[in-house]
Amino acid sequence: MTIAHVASIDLNLLTHLDALLGERHVTRAAAREGLTQSAMSRSLAKLRAHLGDALLVRGAGGLVLTPRAEALRAPLRRALDDLDALLAPAAPFDPATAARSFTVGMADYGEALLLPPLLARLRATAPALQVGTSRVAPDARAALDEGQVDLLLAPRRSGGAATVWRKLFHEEFVCIARRGHPGVGARLTLPRFLALSHVAITPGNRPGTPADEVLARLGRRRRVAVRVPNFLMAPLLVATSDLIGLYPARLARRAAELLPLALHPPPFPLPGFDLHLAWHERHRRDAGHRWFREQLVELAAELVGRA
Predict the structure, then answer these.
(1) Cα 303 to Cα 277: distance, rounded to the nearest angstrom
(2) Distance CA 46, CA 154 (A)
(3) Is 276:167 a contact under the CB 8 Å cutoff?
(4) 139 vs 102, 154, 160, CA distance in Å?
């Protein structure tokens, strides 16, 4: 039966047909469906006209199925079972047993901060869940609308009307340098900052950074010796050279636990950024999706509490 054929029939007739084929008796089929015998007889007449077949005919022991009816019986039962499962209420989400995967669009900044504690939490509460990460182009709407990612972790950017944003926390920048750097001194002043060579983090091969834009408005320019497209390489370069760099504060504190790094306030006013979690409106009532994003929100709150 094509879609055009489905559109031309009252779907209630299909349940009536299932009862008729199963009971092979109009009165019993009517009782099964909660109808009167006359109502079921009218349904049988409509089905005969629509399908162009008698369906039930008199035989020696009562009504018997025509060959067309016999061919319809099993596929119709399967189709009604599938439709019933499709329209049934969604099963409750149980993280302890759920086998599901989520893809989160994020930079390595988010991976370094949130992925380790997220995986530790999932091991304890949702061991069958799988998590993947993906780099996302600046068009957040396309990534979420087209289902490339289930969630996006990023500063707020352009999104469609169906994009839901939730602020997680505000991040500041600090300047990182190796411990004992001879050019930093007791306090990192602007002249010292500008005299030293820098590593700049430019995701997507951007020509500059927000810090460079602020310095340009002040009529200043720093000396960039190397540009890297990700956050994780910069601390390694700084810790093993005389380079310095501007770095997100929370990630800088994490790096300083592992590498010989010193953290200094930027010697000029430098605004930070807000990290947001974004998802498509269609996931708002998805119990599994809601549970997963709540884990990210809670982990972000824990980061803020430790700041």
Answers:
(1) 15
(2) 58
(3) yes
(4) 20, 12, 9
For residue range 241-292, list pLDDT tens digits in order: 999 999 999 999 999 999 999 999 999 999 999 999 999 998 888 999 999 9
Q: Read off the pLDDT band of 139 (50, 70, 90).
A: low
Range of the domain at 165: 101-170+274-306
Segments of 172-243 assigned E as strands: 173-178, 197-201, 223-228
How many whole angstroms separate alpha carbon 298 and alpha carbon 294? 6
The first and second tokens of residue 100, run together, are 């599901």
Residues 6 or more apart whose Cβ sits within 8 Å of residue 202: 208, 209, 227, 228, 229
Whether residue 207 contacts residue 274, with contact meaning beta carbons closer than 8 Å, is answered with: no
Dig out the tokens for 244 from the structure.
Answer: 């310095």
Q: Which two tokens stand for residue 304?
A: 């803020």
CA-wise closest residue to 131 among 113, 119, 117? 119
The pTM for the full model equals: 0.70
Long-range contacts of 201-206 (CB under 8 A, 24+ apart): 201/227, 201/228, 201/229, 201/230, 201/231, 201/234, 201/245, 201/246, 201/247, 202/227, 202/228, 202/229, 203/107, 203/229, 203/230, 204/138, 204/229, 205/229
Cβ atoms 197, 223 nearer than 8 A? yes
Residues 54 and 75 placed together within one structural domain of the fold: yes
In-domain check, residue 92: no
Query: The CATH number of the domain where 239 resides is what?
Result: 3.40.190.10
Q: Which residues pair with 63 in a beta bridge?
A: 58
Asked whether residue 77 falls in the same domain as residue 203, the answer is no
